[in-house]
Structure formats: structure tokens, C-alpha cells
Amino acid sequence: MLHDRGACRGYSLIQILVSGYNTNMLHNALRVIFVLSLLLLAIFVPVVSSGYSELEQASTASSYIEVAEHYGSAARRIPWRADLYELAGHAYYHAKEYSLADAAYQKALQVNVLSAEGWVAWGDVNYLNADPQRASEVWAQALEQENPSDQLYSRLSQIYDENADYPKAAQYLQKYVAMHSDGASAHYRLGLLLTLSDPNKALSELNSASQLDPRLDSAVRTLGTALNLASLKDSTSERFVIIGRGLGLVEEWPLAHAAFEEAVKADGKNAEALAWLGEANQQIGSPEGGSVALDQALSLNPKSATVRGLRGLYFQRAGNFREALAEFQSAAKLEPDNPAWRVSMGEAHSKLGDLIRALEAYQSATTLVPDDASYWRLLAIFCAQNNVNIKDVGIPAAQKAVILAQEDTISFDVLGWLLLLDARHEEAERILLRALELDSQNASAYLHLGMVYLQEEDRTAAYDQLIKARDLGNVEAGVLLNQYFP
């Protein structure tokens, strides 16, 4: 028993010693941790503080570059504000530093903070940096994320549209339109894309666009007429030719080119399809392709007025006015009742310096369609541009155009211009003011009104009108401003 009690006392002593040792160890460890914590705080607090200082400087920076740099610096110093990498990307975007923006968005992705809008912007900077392929890859990857931005659909549609993959472009734009039913331009573009694959759906989209924005009425009517006429044709090739011509009339030449290509695929012996393909090639910047197609068209059908007329346009653009005149004359013989060929002959005669025959050609066009204001207006413009027969032909022609189209601002402008050339300043001013009542954005009318005031030596009024014309894009107004108001 005594031995056991001694052993117990010994064991208790060991426990006490060990316990004391552990307590000392614990105290030492706590002391080390405390010291390390102080050291870490000494390092970390100034870093975080400097991060918030960078964030504050970003809010007052004077340029987007500085904003971006402050955001990037702050993001590196404040671990819980990784979202600042995306904000840096946005600032670089606005500064047009697209490569730096790309790197910032890449960093935001790496730390898993890239927002839906950030994905869109990331693709944008690649697109703006002339790398559409990379942009499309980014946007396609963005669609795989949770809750992607609906703006991705319009972006991808544009990419496929530019690459002439019109079915894919229409597919993405349909998704965008489904979410933005009040967007007139999106409905209009979708309608254009669908003209090649689904004319009925195209008409529906175009009409929706017109209802949302009346400024699209004219283009929609033109396209609607083309689609309706095409639906009456049994030949696939003829349908695509009519649709392509409608697209050309609204200056959608890349789409028109695709339509004419389909027309040729459907019938390789359709001379008019080939001729129109040649015209579209020129319009999209491929004159050599235009020449080849037009030559093929002529060999297939030399008695087609359309083929001859389009060949005439080709030679006219190339400055070969004698060949152009010959083609227009051939077209006029094949279609003697078509006033367009007479006007084209007049233009060619004018370029060759034969103003007498040019005038006769323009006048003959008006006799074919005496109730069409556009041909009277063209006759008047010819007189004004060449300063011939102003009083006895030009002014009466312009007056006839105004009578036939009383709400047409262009006709009033042309009449005002001719009255100006005839030094009838008071009448010219009244007519040009009427033109501007009909359309306050008529740059040409502002130009001619400014010229009226110059003739009357009212420099203040002239300056005001010429400024308006220049600001609306009239180049001649800028020239006059430099000449009279240096």
C-alpha cells in the first residue's frame, strides 16, 4: 500500500511537471501566434488600406486609363473585391485600350467574378480590336454560363450576318427579338434576313418594324412589294431575282448578292439572274466579278434589256461612256416604253459632252411618263447641273414635279435651286422654306437657302443656313463656309 501510494505520488508529480511543461508550450505558441498576427497585420493592414486608397482615387481620376489602373491596383490589394478586375476592364474599354481590357476581363474570369454584362463587354473589346473570331468564341462561351445576357444573341447574330451566314444570323436574332419585341431595328433586320428563307415570316417582321418606327415605311413597302411579286412566280430563280432586286432598292446589297447567287444556283441559264449578280458584285466591291457575270449574261441572252442596261451601268461606272451609251441605246430599242433607259442615255450623252442630245433624252423620258414627278425632277436637275435652259425648260419641269408631288420636299428644293439660278431670289427663298417645312432635315434645301442669302448679301442668315447644311452632311456647304467665312 505504501508502495502504491508512493507510486501515485510519483505519477501525480509527473503529471504536474508535464502539465506545467504543456502550459509553457501553450503560452509560447500563443505568444508566437500573437507576434505573427501582429506582423501579418502590420503588413496586411497597410496593403488593404492602400487598396481602398486606390479605390478612392479611381472615383476622382481624370481619365479612363487612370481609373482602370486604380481599379486594377485596388483589386490586387483587397482580396474580397475581385469584382474590381471587371471594372478595370470596363474602364480600359472606354479608353479604347482593348488589349488591356481583354486581359482585365480574363483575370475577372479566372477569379470567377465575371458578370453577364462583363461577358458581353469582353467579346466587344475583341471585336473592336479587329478579332471577330475571338469575339464570337467569347460570346458563345458566355451563352453556356448561368443567366447569360440577352445581348449575346444580337452580338452573335451580327457576327454571322457579317460572315454571310444568314440562316445562323436569323436564328440568333429571332431569340433576341423574342425578348425585345419593341425594337424596330431588330424586327427590320430579322425581316431582311428572313427574305431569303421564309418570306412570309419576313413580311410579318417587316410590318412589325414599320408599326414601331414609321420612318421604315418606305423601305418596308418596297420589300413587301418585292416579296408579294416573288410569291406569284413559279420559278425559284425568278423569285430570288425579284427578292434580290427589292433588297438592292433598299441598299441591302450583301443580302441581295446572296439572293442572286441562289437565283443562279436554281437556274444557271437565267441571264437576268447573272446580270443582277454582276451588279451586286460591283456594289459589294468586286468589279471583276461583275464583269465576268455580265459577260456570261450577254452570251446567254443578248436581247435582254435588263442585261444590256446593267452592262451600261457597269461601263458608266468604269468611265467608259461610249460603251455605256451603246448599251443603254440597245436597252431602249428592246424596251422603247421604259423611261429609265432614256434617262441613262441622257446621262451618258452628258458625260460625253453632248448636252443637246442629253436634253432630248431627258425630255423624251418625261413624254413617256408625263404624270411621274420623278422624271420631271430629273430633267430639272439636269438643267441645273449643266446650267442650260434654266428658264424655258428647267423651271417649268421643276414646277411640274411640284404640282405632281405636292408634299415632296426634294421637288420643292429642286425648284428653289432653279429659281436661285435664275436670280429669282424672293421666290426661291419662299419655295426653299416650304421644302424645309416638309422636311427639316433636308440638307440640300439649307444649302440652297444659304446660297440665296449669299446672293442677297445677308451673310448672317447665309452662315446659319450653311452651318445647318454642313452639320447634316452636305459637303458643298462646308466648301462654301471655308470660302466665304474663313
How would you describe this protein?
With 486 residues, the chain is mainly alpha-helical. Among the domains are: 34-138, Serine Threonine Protein Phosphatase 5, Tetratricopeptide repeat; 370-486, Serine Threonine Protein Phosphatase 5, Tetratricopeptide repeat, CATH 1.25.40. It has 26 helices and no strands. It has helices spanning 2-60, 64-77, 84-94, 98-110, 116-128, 132-143, 151-162, 166-179, 184-194, 199-212, 217-231, 236-249, 253-266, 271-283, 287-300, 305-317, 321-334, 339-351, 355-368, 373-386, 390-404, 409-421, 425-438, 443-455, 459-471, 475-484. It starts with a helix and ends with a helix. Residues 34-47 have low confidence and may be disordered.
Features of this protein?
486 residues, mainly alpha, Serine Threonine Protein Phosphatase 5, Tetratricopeptide repeat
Describe how the helices and strands are arranged.
Layout: H1 2-60, H2 64-77, H3 84-94, H4 98-110, H5 116-128, H6 132-143, H7 151-162, H8 166-179, H9 184-194, H10 199-212, H11 217-231, H12 236-249, H13 253-266, H14 271-283, H15 287-300, H16 305-317, H17 321-334, H18 339-351, H19 355-368, H20 373-386, H21 390-404, H22 409-421, H23 425-438, H24 443-455, H25 459-471, H26 475-484
